[in-house]
Write a structure and sequence with these properties.
two-stranded antiparallel sheet; six-stranded antiparallel β-sheet; 22% helix; elongated
Length: 157
């Protein structure tokens, strides 16, 4: 993901949202179903970004890749609350996403990726002996992932 920017959605100017601090809004939780463990309200922000197909990301805004998106969700404790389907359908390269969290601090930390480059980096286990290396030599990348020999880390720089 590159060219990450804040998206000032028009819906944030309505009475459905309250500005909590710059680029952080409080609104109704679209997933709330009355369960006691859920929060009726969420803190949200929206971002735009471009995917990088050469790094294994989606090729169009209509097909937003899970990587590095899943890493971002995990890293900052946020989840997607609006996919902006109409905007993504009209755009050739800019993706639109709204992110929500139960704690405004998570949104504040997420906003730290604005202007940065976010991608997935392959990591290899470095504590293998010669015999283990020989055993893993003929395995597919999927099998190596299942064995925990390789994995992917989300990088923000």
């Amino acid at each position: 993901m590159k060219n990450i920017k804040v998206y000032d959605a028009e819906k944030y100017l309505t009475s459905a949202f309250t500005s909590v601090e710059k680029n952080i809004y409080k609104g109704k939780n679209p997933y709330y179903n009355g369960e006691r463990w859920q929060s009726e309200e969420l803190y949200v922000t929206s971002l735009t970004f471009e995917q990088e197909p050469d790094l294994g990301e989606g090729e169009t805004p209509q097909n937003i890749s899970q990587c590095p998106l899943e890493g971002i969700l995990d890293m900052y404790g946020v989840f997607v609350t609006d996919f902006y389907d109409e905007l993504n359908a009209q755009s050739e390269c800019t993706c639109y996403q709204e992110f929500g969290a139960h704690d405004p601090e998570n949104i504040k930390q997420l906003l730290g990726i604005v202007g940065k480059h976010v991608y997935e980096q392959k990591v290899y286990a470095d504590d293998l002996d010669e015999e283990e290396l020989e055993n893993y030599k003929n395995m597919s990348e999927e099998e190596l992932e299942e064995e925990g020999i390789i994995w992917y880390d989300t990088v923000v720089e």
